[in-house]
Amino acid sequence: MAVTRLDGRRIIITGGASGMGEGLVRSFPALGAKVVSVDLTEDAGARIAEESGAEFLPVDVADKESVDSTFTAAVEKLGGLDVLVHAAGIAPSSPAEESSVDLWTKVLSVNTLGTMLTNQAAFAHLKGEGGQVINFASAAGVIGLPNKSVYAMSKGGVIAWTRTAAKEWGKHNVSLNMIAPAIWTPMYDKTRSEMSPEALAAHDAYMGQNIPLGGKLGDVEKDFIPVLAFYASEGARFITGQIVSVDGGTLMVR
Length: 254
Hints:
This protein is an alpha/beta fold and 254 residues long.
């Protein structure tokens, strides 16, 4: 499969210690990119980066001081910045009527505030020569998702933020787009392992009905990496404010 090359592209990836962020850290250096992975989980993040030919720095995406200092250090390592891929996020389950203030604070701090802080930190380095920001949205933020009330709200905020910043930062040649993925990762395996047999059967039935292409989540290397590589390349420089649904048709056009 032909995948867009990223030769010389200087890229920061958040959430690089697990999930789709890990997949990006493992793939982008092989495509020619210079990568700094940042994550709160230091041991796994550092190990994955070393195995992949990337650099690693610890960060708390919900803390402005941590984000600003880490991004400054990352840009120094890279010798500049072309792309931010902001993959860090959490997705705890909670029915709407049981969602607590503590859960709201935790999820929106990581997912929504974290998006704003990392985007602002990247923009400070991108606005001179231009560049690209790729945030992670979700179908949950567009159409809702049962038992993911607070997560869905946080991703709705990511969508609104990204489209607003795309309109404001375009004059600086900075584009912002979003990926709404439905991809099978080890984190998803863990989620499945924690379900009861009844819940798992119901979940699989739901997926079968709502993912037109194959009825299940996509593959990181075959379905996800090629799309992200294009959106991190110079070929995507005239695309902004868009949700790119890598989800087998779950979201479609809504």
